[in-house]
Amino acid sequence: MDSSSVYIIRLRKFVAWLCRYLPFFVCRVLAHVPKVSLPAVSRLLQQEIAFTPPVQGATTFRTLNVTGTPCSIHAQMHVQYERGSDFTGKRVALVAHWDPHGFIDPYVIFYMQQIRALGYTTVLISDRELMMPTDTMDWADAVIWRDCSGYDFTSWKGALEYYPSILAAKELLITNDSIFAPTNPLAPVHAAMDAQSCDFWGLTESRISVPHLQSYYLVFRPSVLTHSAFQGFWETVGTNTDRDVVIMRYELTLTSWLSRHGLIGAAYLTPDSLPDWTDPGPVYLYWRQLLRHFGFPCIKRDVLAGKYWWMYLVDWERELASTGYPTELIRNYFARVGYQKE
């Protein structure tokens, strides 16, 4: 991908961002202008939206081509902990990890414990050697790390190469530590999606740039794992350090690439579930409504990190505590790392 393509991607992202959040800024300004009273302003600032029930089911995705030269990072993968290496017939969860201090934070351990409670065998993959906890390892079946650059897709690729039996798993979940979860139980979400006739699914569908399932939580069934299109996709994943290029080549492409080969994707939450005037990718701006109205099982870490100065975070801790999530995990995490961004 040449530099001009990258600039075009960034320009499109900026335009999408402007179109997405300009109405929100206007509403916030108007709300402080005397004698101005608009129903939409009031509704937005009160953070209450009348949602319809989730719309699940198969989704048609625009097709994109996979680009990149096949490569391997198997030699750059290292094991720190391993309970077993045969994942045949199991439900497997690959959790991509990043921490500025090489620390496995308690919120990550909590998330992985809840994933294991669903019946998954869990593998943590980090981008560096880690300081391992000294207590029980009831949250992981394997901890591995890579000594190469790249983002989450590179970590997932490394796990698939190091443990090829994952392709013979009963089900594969790929996720990462960019979320605090579960804020609501995961089991009802999985039960709802297990009833769908699809080959793979994600928590959310975004229509920014191109329709795609967002990669922070994706589930693949055997029909995908054994398909040459899925295996070929991972062969092309490299160690790129440009985040925009990684998003374009991998996250925006994976869904449509699989769909192009006859595999059916679905989402637990689609834009069709939301009012017409809301954001096409509501995980950030409408996190509160997702928790309240959908029992949504996670909140993005960046929402609470102070990355977006305009984010409505009043009473965030009380909101999350009402779901039963142990909010001290969030407070302790940010007390340790501050507001660093990977």
Please give the share of residues in helix.
Answer: 25-40%
Tell me the strand percentage band.
Answer: 15-25%
CATH topology of the largest domain: Spore Coat Polysaccharide Biosynthesis Protein SpsA, Chain A
Strand tally is: 12
Q: Could you name the ranges where pLDDT drops below 50 across 5 or more consecutive residues? A: 26-55
> What profile does the largest beta sheet have?
10 strands, mixed
Chain-averaged pLDDT: 84
What class would the helix/strand composition place it in?
alpha/beta
Number of alpha- plus pi-helical segments: 12
Named at the architecture level, the CATH assignment of the largest domain is: Alpha-Beta Complex
Query: End-to-end span in angstroms?
Result: 23 Å
Envelope shape: globular
In CATH, what is the class of the largest domain?
Answer: Alpha Beta
SSE string, helix = H, strand = E? HHEEEHEEHEEHEEEHHHEHEHHH
The tally of domains stands at 2
Instruction: Specify Rg, calculated over alpha carbons.
Output: 20 Å
Task: Describe this structure as you would to a colleague.
The radius of gyration is 20 Å and the shape is globular. It starts with a helix and ends in a 5-residue tail after the last helix. Strands 1, 2, 3, 4, 5, 6, 8, 9, 10 and 11 form a ten-stranded mixed β-sheet that branches. It is built from twelve helices and twelve strands. The relative contact order is 0.17. It folds into two domains: 1-46; 58-271, Spore Coat Polysaccharide Biosynthesis Protein SpsA, Chain A (Alpha-Beta Complex). Helix 1 crosses helix 2 (39-45). It is 37% helix and 16% strand. With 342 residues, it is α/β, with parallel strands linked by helices. The model is unreliable at 26-55 (pLDDT under 50).
